[in-house]
Design a protein that fits this description.
The structure holds 2 protein chains of 2 kinds. Chain A is an alpha+beta fold. In chain A, 29% of the residues lie in helices and 26% in strands. In chain A, 47% of the residues are buried. By secondary structure, chain B is of the alpha+beta class. Chain B is globular. Classes of the chains: A alpha+beta, B alpha+beta.
């Protein structure tokens, strides 16, 4: 993936070593564990991925899986940032594979439920760790033939944008993987007539971006309004527009969190 | 105005203290600094995995922390509870410690210096060229029976 953050362009300063010639192994690992954007474009009628970690690596990840006519797409935001969050990306990725590919759990709500238990069990007896094990997760299941679509979210919502307006398909408030005894349950939301809409999953970092005319955090309705104004643009064009919008929103402020946006059409 | 020698020593101490504090506060196991030495011959003193930070501003150079897999694996087990870390985990741990050290030093170095984002690598990348006029100060460190190197190079 070619997304680069300005902070990573070390050649803007006159370093004694040309760091741009030395590949950072952690950055290579972070991007190589995530699916390629092309893979989504093969199965959705249109799709894009924006992935801008704050540093060399980040805590935002996504996972894609096709089984028969069903495709699964999950975006997850591991709490924290940098290298420790990047380690959690691999844990979540492997746990999702285990749930869906290994155990054949196929309802988005059930996947989140089992994912929570899996992560919770993994860290149950680890009391003094410095790592945050919880994550916001949004997961979509789409049947490519019948176009039936379901969504479940753990502290993550799905943006549905169509001619008739912007709809926020709400997930549950509880994150996945919190090491608490609180009961977590996640329900699957059925999406009616998904072929007439564009859908967007956004990491929490998008709504932590401070800027705009009032120097405030970007909100999901604001993002939805912007996307609806550009509803007719092809998604690959929207990718550029969304990147520009987020950059303009942030203005002179530094990117303060990892950013991931996935857009797709059923 | 500080002499270059004093400035060099002050910069060294910042990195030494930052690494030492990292181990002391986050692992609750003190690190033991061995006798530092100036490296005069060509090449770098490297262990298996390294996080390197560039220094720019009134002095140019670099600092890196290099250690073997076992030390990073111990840190991962301690911090994250992963007992069988992958190579990707090991590299991320090398990046994490370099990031924390760089962040602490950045806060203390003053406006005349800039610190780069750490670059993490395994072994000795062929693209890594160190200019001949760089003086390297090697600080061997022992933590939890593992040896690591903190190396400061300044032009």
């Amino acid at each position: 993936m070619s997304d680069q953050q300005d902070e990573n362009k070390t050649n803007e300063t006159n370093w004694i070593i040309n760091f741009d010639k030395i590949e950072d192994s952690t950055r290579r690992n972070y991007f190589s564990v995530l699916p390629q954007e092309n893979r989504l474009m093969e199965h959705f009628s249109e799709a894009f991925v924006i992935n801008k970690p704050k540093g060399r690596v980040g805590g935002d990840g996504f996972w894609f899986h096709k089984h028969g006519e069903d495709v699964y797409l999950a975006l997850f935001t591991c709490v924290g940032e940098g290298h420790l969050a990047s380690m959690m990306i691999r844990i979540y990725m492997n746990a999702l594979k285990k749930m869906v590919e290994g155990y054949s759990i196929d309802f988005p709500g059930s996947i989140l439920q089992f994912l929570h238990r899996e992560v919770q069990a993994r860290f149950k007896d680890k009391n003094n760790i410095l790592l945050n094990t919880n994550a916001n997760v949004g997961i979509v299941k789409l049947n490519l033939e019948s176009k039936e679509m379901e969504f479940a979210g753990a502290n993550m919502d799905l943006l549905q944008v169509s001619k008739s307006g912007v709809k926020i398909v709400e997930g549950e408030k509880n994150q996945v993987g919190e090491n608490t005894e609180t009961r977590h349950s996640y329900s699957s939301n059925s999406i009616k007539d998904p072929t007439n809409s564009n859908f967007y999953l956004c990491s929490s970092g998008v709504f932590n971006l401070i800027g705009g005319p009032d120097f405030k955090k970007l909100t999901m309705p604001q993002m939805g309004d912007y996307l609806q104004k550009n509803l007719n643009a092809p998604l690959l064009e929207q990718k550029i527009l969304v990147e520009q919008y987020l950059t303009t929103w942030t203005g002179a402020n530094r990117q303060n969190d990892d950013i991931m946006v996935i857009g797709f059409k059923a | 105005m500080e002499s270059r020698k004093e400035e060099f020593e002050a910069t060294c101490n910042l990195f030494i203290n930052s690494v030492s504090n990292y181990f002391k506060h986050l692992t609750e196991i003190d690190s033991d600094m061995k006798v530092p030495y100036l490296k005069e011959s060509d090449g770098l003193v490297l262990k298996d995995f390294t996080g390197m930070i560039g220094i720019s501003g009134s002095r140019k150079g670099f600092v890196y922390i290099s250690a073997n897999r076992e030390m990073f694996a111990d840190l991962i087990n301690m911090f994250i509870g992963i007992e069988d870390p992958s190579e990707e985990d090991i590299l991320d741990m090398a990046g994490e410690i370099s990031n924390v050290v760089a962040g602490n030093v950045r806060a203390n170095l003053g406006a005349n210096f800039m610190i780069s984002v750490p670059t993490v690598f395994e072994g000795m990348p062929p693209e890594l060229n160190i200019p001949e006029n760089v003086s390297m100060y090697v600080i061997p460190i022992k933590w939890n029976n593992h040896e690591a190197f903190v190396v400061l190079g300044l032009d």
